[in-house]
Amino acid sequence: MDLKLNAHTVVFWDTAPFIYLIEGHSDFCAPVRELVEECIRVRAQMVTTLITYIELLTHPERLGRTDLAARYRMFLTNSENLSIHPFNLHVADECIRIRAEYGFKTPDAIQLAVARACGASLLVTNDAAWKRCTDCNVALVSELVQSRPKT
């Protein structure tokens, strides 16, 4: 994995990579874990939003999986170098610009707006549509898997 994380002081995280990590996805867990560990090692601040918090906890709550919901809550609220950024009017205005320019739905536009507001120089997701945002440096988890050396 060659993202040169030491060049990034703020890394934004979308929802899917956390699902892969916490639920142990067979293909994506290991590269996401490596990326989290590298962020911690180089002291890159990891940022996400309340959108991610809501998206991660809704499914376990719906299924009555309080164990999984607790794991998500613990990770999101107690992880080293990870913060959950709130919405504000600045983020809302940036969200409007992103929706107008790129046509993203509101949740993705909020994610991208928060990434910009936080000064994130790298965005970690598995949503290829985010690459439409041409002024964002987007890393797809699926591409990280493809770039890993074969064992």
What does this protein look like?
This protein has a five-stranded parallel beta sheet. The two termini are about 15 Å apart. By secondary structure, the protein is α/β, with parallel strands linked by helices. It has one domain: 5'-nuclease (Rossmann fold).
* Mean model confidence by pLDDT: 93
Radius of gyration: 15 Å
> H/E order of the elements?
EHHEHHEHHEEH
The total of helices stands at: 7
Secondary structural class:
alpha/beta
Q: Ends: how far apart?
A: 14 Å
CATH architectural category: 3-Layer(aba) Sandwich
Record field, number of beta strands = 5
Q: List the uncertain runs.
A: none
* Largest β sheet strand count, sense and barrel closure: 5 strands, parallel
Helix content: 40-55%
Q: Give the CATH superfamily.
A: 5'-nuclease
Number of domains: 1
* CATH class descriptor: Alpha Beta
Instruction: Tell me the fraction of residues in β-strands, as a range.
Output: 5-15%
Biggest β-sheet: strands ordered side by side in the sheet: 3-2-1-4-5
Write down the overall geometry. globular
What is the third-level CATH name, the topology?
Rossmann fold
Essential attributes:
alpha/beta; Rossmann fold; globular
What is shown here, in short?
With 151 residues, the chain is an alpha/beta fold. It has seven helices and five strands, in the order E-H-H-E-H-H-E-H-H-E-E-H. It has a single domain (10-145), classed as Rossmann fold (3-Layer(aba) Sandwich), CATH 3.40.50.
SSE blueprint:
Layout: E1 10-13, H1 15-22, H2 29-41, E2 45-49, H3 50-63, H4 66-78, E3 82-85, H5 89-102, H6 106-117, E4 122-125, E5 138-140, H7 141-147
Parallel strand pairs: 1-2, 1-4, 2-3, 4-5
Helix pairs in contact: 1-2, 3-4, 5-6
